[in-house]
Amino acid sequence: MDHSNSITDSRQKGKHFTYGDRRVIKSLHERKYSNRAIARELNCSPSSIGYELKRGTITTPNSHRKRYFAKAGQDAYDDNRKHCGRKIEFFKHRRFMEYVVKHFHQDDWSLDACVGRALAIDGFTKDEVVSTKTLYKYVDEKLLGIINLDLPMKTARSTKQHKVRQNLRKLGRSIDERDPKI
């Protein structure tokens, strides 16, 4: 396949349409441009135009006709973007987080002790509890109301420093210092 006539040469792959792009789509679509012609104008794939037209097309209440609106397309895009990405587990485990903060401050438990006691003694299930590593991540993100200074072992520990090993003694003369006859 010859790519010299490609219509997607100057648009970055994965780039989303802006509201301005949607207004151009609306204008050209109303002037009866084909999806391929609109795609040439915006340097994107014709299927992207088709998807965008489908996303932003609504039925008007007065005429009961389907029309594309840039605002409707942008609203649908914004709504879809709210649902993407990994969701934070913090809010799903509110009861456990309150338990951790209470016992950390009142009883001086470590975060690891909170996880262990919650599972072993206090009746939390595996689904209700997050790992110790996740708790430390929440401390770093300042979600728990606990700061790193409250964790004495975390602030006292030093990271390992790699030192270049020095030879403790020289094992004879170097090659340069030896007799050339040997």
SSE topology string: HHHEEHHHHH
- Enumerate how many helices there are, as a single number: 8
For the termini, the CA-CA separation is 69 Å
Oligomer: single chain
The largest β sheet comes out as: 2 strands, antiparallel
Task: Kindly report the spatial arrangement of strands forming the biggest sheet.
Answer: 1-2
Features:
182 residues; two-stranded antiparallel sheet; 2 strands; flat; mainly alpha
Structural write-up:
- The protein has 182 residues and is mainly alpha-helical.
- Among the domains are: 19-78, Orthogonal Bundle (Arc Repressor Mutant, subunit A); 90-156, no CATH class.
- The chain contains 8 helices and 2 strands; from the N terminus they run H-H-H-E-E-H-H-H-H-H.
- The protein has helices at 19-30, 35-42, 46-56, 70-82, 94-107, 111-120, 132-140, 152-156; strands at 57-59, 66-68.
- A hairpin with a 6-residue loop joins strand 1 (57-59) and strand 2.
- The chain is flat, with a radius of gyration of 32 Å.
- The N and C termini lie far apart (69 Å).
- 14% of the residues are buried.
- The model has no long low-confidence stretch (mean pLDDT 83).
Write the layout of secondary structure elements.
Blueprint: H1 19-30, H2 35-42, H3 46-56, E1 57-59, E2 66-68, H4 70-82, H5 94-107, H6 111-120, H7 132-140, H8 152-156
Antiparallel strand pairs: 1-2
